[in-house]
Amino acid sequence: xxxxxxxxxxxxxxxxxxxxxxxxxxxxxxxxxxxxxxxxxxxxxxxxxxxxxxxxxxxxxxxxxxxxxxxxxxxxxxxxxxxxxxxxxxxxxxxxxxxxxxxxxxxxxxxxxxxxxxxxxxxxxxxxxxxxxxxxxxxxxxxxxxxxxxxxxxxxxxxxxxxxxxxxxxxxxxxxxxxxxxxxxxxxxxxxxxxxxxxxxxxxxxxxxxxxxxxxxxxxxxxxxxxxxxxx
Length: 232
What we know:
The protein is an alpha+beta fold and 232 residues long. Helices cover 27% and strands 23% of the residues. Strands 1, 2, 3, 4, 5, 6, 7 and 8 form an eight-stranded antiparallel beta sheet that branches. The longest helix is centred in the N-terminal third of the chain and has 19 residues. The chain is globular and about 45 Å long. 33% of the residues are buried. The N terminus is likely disordered.
């Protein structure tokens, strides 16, 4: 009896399909990826972006990964000033990762390429100890970059803040970077694509800063930032 019912159902579906000019087949349920979970505990290398993400974004040159753990300068010194992560936030030692297209890196900081054009990106990630501290650090880091959205005409400038919410307690804010030649009114030009930019990341008790030096447009930046905060 059960087999006969299945045949009847399929026959009805085919019949309806013929009337509509196409076949109708019961859809299969598609598998879904498990939801992202807020991070917690010590930061390891697996929490940072790898070179493959930038190959997907269209970087054709070989990308090398340079890591170190400790303290040091973060974000764009020309915008927020020459600050160290520990000095600003008082947090524990962070993981620094440079993604570069050269073996020639700074002798004091291997995450920085000697020549700026060889720097694809740089990421700094740390554990704040609790989601509340991470949220506080994240908000302070975002506020540090906001003044760079308004600069005198002719000076490079950050674009408006864009937010990516992956899940509760997993979020990122990023700002595209615009060359001074495009800044004619003191702010980022409307309708123009950014050329890289900066992102502030938060997942659970982890927080981070990602500087993208490669000239990625808005769509590529969104993909990279989403990948970074999801991995965080």
